[in-house]
Amino acid sequence: MTMTLATRVEDLPFLDVKDPAFSIRSPEVADAREQSWCARTPYGIAVLRYDEVQKLMRDPRLRQGSYAWPAMNDATGKFADWWSRMLLSQEGSDHARLRRLANPAFSPKLVTSLQPAFAVLANELIDTFAKKDSCEFMADFAEPYATRVICTLLGLPHEVWRELADIAADMGLALGVTFKQDIPRIDAATQKLFDYAANLIADRRARDLGTDFLSLLIKTNQEDQQALSDQEMVDMVVLAIFGGIDTTRNQLGLAIDMFLQHPAQWALLAAQPELGRAAVEEVMRVRPTITWVTREAVTDFSYEGIDIAKGTTLHLFSQAACSDPRAFPDAGFDITAERKPHFGFGGGAHHCLGHFIARGDMTEALAILARRLKNMRLGGEPKWLPDSGNTGAISLPIAFDPEV
Amino acid sequence: MRMCVDMKKCQYHGQCVIAAPDLFSFAEDGSLKWVETIDDSLRQQAEDAADVCPEQAITLEG
Ligand code: HEM
Ligand code: HEM
Ligand code: SF4
Predict the structure, then answer these.
(1) Backbone dihedral angles phi then psi of residue A18, each to the nearest 5 degrees
(2) pLDDT digits (tens, 9 = 90+) for A93-138
(3) Which residues line ligand 1 (CB under 6 A)?
């Protein structure tokens, strides 16, 4: 007879993820990970180890947890309405239908065709500061790059990038702590973004359709309104703007942070630009911008001796799991190492729709940055978002040898 | 046309099940099942699945 060791939830380590000073990379989290595969949090359970995160990420007894976000904050209005309609909040057959529709517009083939445009864009931005000896990486590169990649994807003139970045940032307040006070501003931004998206679609309709992102959506919509309604088409465009900009901006800043701490790896990447893709993967393993994803139990079940009640929120700590010594015995930052897959793009049915694009544009950017910014080092005091949830640099001053 | 899934790469995201429900499914025990010999009428679905797989674990031959 085997004995199962029932663990009482009260005996688990406790992590106060609500505290703005909480850090997902703290020794406290590493200690908790040694004690148990999971910990208690003010929201529910945090999952800390690689194997468990990997399995629970795609477990059909769990659904994506973000859908509850506006409701948790008692928020209603245009933003809350859009949130409840969008892909990440949908499950089952509705999710599958929307995802099937979106897939062609995010395919690896489309991304391969955009690769040269990403390189031109990266070089153009670097040209603006390469002859000086310093820049503010977030404002001078990460933000315009992330936003203009989306302009390229949507076929927008690049002059509008600032406008787009500002609207997305306003809407982004929705995900911050000031959600409730900011509702009028957020709803105004939501309306603006929807008008914007609707205009884009109208503009594109008026011209000959091609194989670009908007054309693919419009073709599906024209062929069958049942398959993709007008509303769903606008939602999809908003999703690309909203889901693709800040994530990419933040992930690029975190990549630079890792290389600032590992200058030999930066020099290696400069010498071997073909390591660009591996560099993106290694950065996202140890320093993902989305440090956890949430799931919610749709049924009562028991997992590794822990009873999980229906409705429980699980925070799957991607960052902690991908520095778990059980899965990565040699945990150092090394862009040449063979690694298991990371969870920086989540997993399962909700695995990031934009990952081919994000991987493609970041690969291009890092390889070119490493080649042109020699001897890169910190150029001042960076400012950081909290080191949990969705993290990244607010500002990141860097210095380097000027190009002659 | 023949379809292979490299189970060393597969992470069980199930994006193939979403893209090509006639060709892929998860069994009760959670394992991935797929049709190995693809009829011409389902060619497009197979190509869609190969395209979307986040790990690029699906290959088509013939
Ligand atoms: C470095 C950049 C990016 C990171 C780190 C990132 C990360 C993520 C993560 C963690 C998820 C949730 C996965 C889960 O719950 O398991 C997600 C979902 C999603 N992402 Fe991204 N993402 C990035 C870029 C993009 C881009 C460029 C786009 C679009 C153009 C995009 C669109 C989406 C969409 C639509 C979803 C929802 C998918 C669904 O629910 O089926 N992302 N992303
Ligand atoms: C459609 C677009 C978006 C998608 C698919 C997306 C995806 C995600 C995912 C997967 C998470 C992880 C937490 C979870 O699973 O519950 C998350 C959390 C978060 N997102 Fe987004 N995101 C989107 C838009 C944005 C934008 C535009 C911003 C801000 C500018 C933003 C800011 C945040 C913040 C601050 C969190 C952390 C919340 C917390 O941990 O309490 N998101 N998002
Ligand atoms: S989409 Fe790819 S990784 Fe996911 S289950 Fe299918 S074959 Fe495996």
Answers:
(1) -75, -25
(2) 989 988 998 888 888 988 899 999 999 999 999 999 999 999 999 9
(3) A 64, 87-88, 99, 239-240, 243-244, 247-248, 251, 289-290, 293, 344-348, 350-354, 357-358
Measure the CA–CA gap between A376 and A213, rounded to whole angstroms: 36
Q: How far apart are CA A270 and CA A260, in angstroms?
A: 14
Q: Which of B16, B34, B59, B60 to mutate to test the pocket of ligand 3 (most atoms within 8 A of CB)?
A: B16
Is B54 an interface residue toward A (CB < 8 Å)?
A: yes
CA distances to A13, A17, A35 from A42, rounded to whole Å, are 12, 7, 19
CATH code, B14: 3.30.70.20
Digit-coded pLDDT (tens) for A365-377: 999 999 999 999 9
Q: What's the structural domain count of chain B?
A: 1
- Closest residue by Cα to residue A363 from A220, A206, A248: A248
Residue B36's domain comprises 2-61
| Structural domains of chain A in order of their starting residue, each with its CATH number | 9-399 (1.10.630.10)
| Mean per-residue pLDDT, A180-197 | 81
- Residue pLDDT, tens place only, B2-49: 999 999 999 999 999 999 999 999 999 999 999 999 999 999 999 999
